[in-house]
Design goal:
Length: 108
């Protein structure tokens, strides 16, 4: 047999290196594509955030998260107060209606 590499040194190592290099190239390409997608996501999310800030500024006069949270809490308290007042009003109507019904039954 006339082999140019009679002791087979390097052949297996070369194949292993080629495989590793191919895998590293695939990994690199996958990571590069992931980076591009992530950059696109960041751009898209930044645009969405800017649009939401502009909307909040237009609707509520601020886009500051802490100010918006305080405004939300104020509105919640106002709603709770309105619900309480409405509940009391309905209860008063029910009481007045019951009183009218009782007076009609006694008169009748």
């Amino acid at each position: 047999m006339n082999d140019s590499n009679p002791n087979n040194t390097g052949t297996t190592r070369d194949v292993q290196l080629e495989r590793e290099l191919a895998q590293l190239r695939q990994d690199y390409e996958r990571l590069r594509e992931q980076r591009v997608r992530t950059e696109q996501d960041i751009t898209h999310l930044t645009e969405q955030l800017d649009a939401l800030k502009a909307q909040a500024q237009a609707e509520y006069g601020t886009s500051d998260p802490e100010e918006l949270q305080a405004l939300l809490e104020k509105k919640r308290k106002e709603n709770e107060m309105l619900v309480t007042q409405y509940r009391e009003h309905v209860q008063q109507i029910q009481a007045d209606l019951a009183a009218v019904e009782n007076s009609v039954e006694r008169a009748g």
